[in-house]
Amino acid sequence: MKYLAHKNDKNEEQSLKQHLENVAERCGTYADAFGARExxxxxxxxxxxGKYSQKFQRRIQGSMERxxxxxxxxxxxxxxxxxxxxxxYCIAGHHAGLPxxxxxxxxxxxxxxxxxxxxxxxxxxxxxxxxxxxxxxxPPFQPVKTENQGFFVSMLIRMLYSCLVDADFLDTELFxxxxxxxxxxxxxxxxxxxxxxxxxxxxxxxxxxxxxxRRTEILRHCLEMGEKExxxxxxxxxxxxxxxxxxxxxxxKHAKExxxxxxxYVIPYTSIIEQNAKVFADIxxxxxxxxxxxxxxxxxxxxxxPMQLATENWDKPIVVTTNVQFFESLFSNKPSKCRKLHNMAxxxxxxxxxxxxxxxxxxxCVGAMEQLLRYYRSSIVLCTATQPALKGLLSEDILVTELCxxxxxxxxxxxxxxxxxLNRISEQELVERVGAEHQALCILNTxxxxxxxxxxxxxxxxxxxxxxxxxxxRQGVLREIRERLQKQERCIVISTSLVEAGVDLDFRAxxxxxxxxxxxIQAEGRCNREGKRPLSDCFTYVFSLEEKEYMAGQRQQIxxxxxxxxxxxxxxxxxxxxxxxxxxxxxxxxxxxxKDILKKFDRGNLQFSRVAREVRLIEDDSKTILIAKEEEARxxxxxxxxxxxxxxxxxxxxxxxxxxxxxxxxxxLAAGALEAMAADLKEDYFVLRDSEKYTDEMGLTLxxxxxxxxxx
Length: 712
Hints:
Hypothetical protein af1432, about 700 residues
């Protein structure tokens, strides 16, 4: 009998033996990136042995019978015991997702590993006539004795799982389509050559009395350090020091020297991603640079089809993505999210603005980073002006190498402004100070406070910026602000923290409401950013208001900053920044793993499915409100009402939406200012009905009282 794996639309057949051997070879090649070729090969060879049942073969021929073909290979490995049991999780979950281990009481319907092993399976014994079970002679590596053994095992299983599901998808895709539409991009060595051609003239500058000369010094040192062995690195560069190109130079040189396969930039804000990705694409070619985040649309054009496919498994030499995408994929259990994980191995991973690593999950995230360093041949670069103090969260034998030469001297050279502490002032005093400025930025902690202060200061050349304005609106306001700044016209901006990173603005003065030290220093980066004014004329003022207020998660950061100020510490000092993070992490303690993720990977009870549900870097209890002021927004609304929500429409719609918390949403709803976007949509999507609640000045009005009503 001929056993089949697939039939395509042309009625062509792929033999089961051929599919298993193809997947085994591909899976083994992927796993070889971290020294586990034989494990990957074995996993791929056994993943579909359940298809050797007569029932599944009837299904291939058109029967509608439901067949579980995944549990067979999992049970085969489980019964062999020892190291093979790691592969059981991968095989059992290669369609449905990595299962939790479960317990002895679980039934066959429970979906856990324990439950799956109790399933009554169709006879698949015919596999033995075509497929032999490979011998696994040794584990690919041994864990260090001091670490969480269960977490080590879970990471190895995840990586092998990634190899399997990507290999399975690609072989099936190739057979079904008859060809591959994927384009992997150019070799790292070729990209390094392109970068060197771009920066060649820069490297000739050795005048350390100029900004460009200092940037070149940092750049040149990063290139030299690229020859180092794999490991953990820091690039601690002040604002204006050229860290984007310097980090790319280190990564390309390092990857070339160490024969690494790709460079992954992990960035907290999409605005920075878009800026950096454009810089990389201009230098290296757009077909070599993959953006993977919620704002990028590769689906709208057939020409972009290879890039869309590359988002599935990150098969490009340069990947630019978000913290959310990176870490939630690392803790996911689903094939679609896990396909990319094996491509994190043997890669240079750069965490830009690394102070923004998620505090609520910092311990498991750092734990995963350490695994990538220790076992998966990756190098990691922490890139920021305000380095988080991660040493206490890493094992003692993990050493860090600084890439910035003469670091303290660079910070002194690039100093653009002086910082002054105004202590506690009234809102009226703040209004008077800011209103008297010619060009100033004032950053407040909450959207509501930003709107209130703007109302007091507003006038010619005064602007408001916050996420109460939909993104297209904000972009338009930012264009106006930049024009006024360039013309040296009066320009006062009242904003929330959204301008602290990824927004190139340059003011004579910055006012920053008390926040975390890292936020204050980021804000200072908007003061005399281009260095065109004398240092003596430019100030960053730190202040607190008489009425305290916090955004969610800010209380501890503000408390630590207050403590440092009371001790007379210089907030700009590198030692103060280190002390800030050490104190913050100490006070947070166990809440650096607020959902006990690490404890959910006990050696005998791996909770893949549960962890995937619980790791959410952005705990979003907000509601989405479409502001249909512009023609494109109205067209999107009409399409949603006609067709329902699609992924493409959601992406387009996001450019015209504002997210609000539950309390504000309830007030707007009670006031009759909202209506459901469409009758069949989830309750999270609404359109603003009352146009007076959204203004060109401030966006969505957040100061809404209960009892208000709108009459139409």
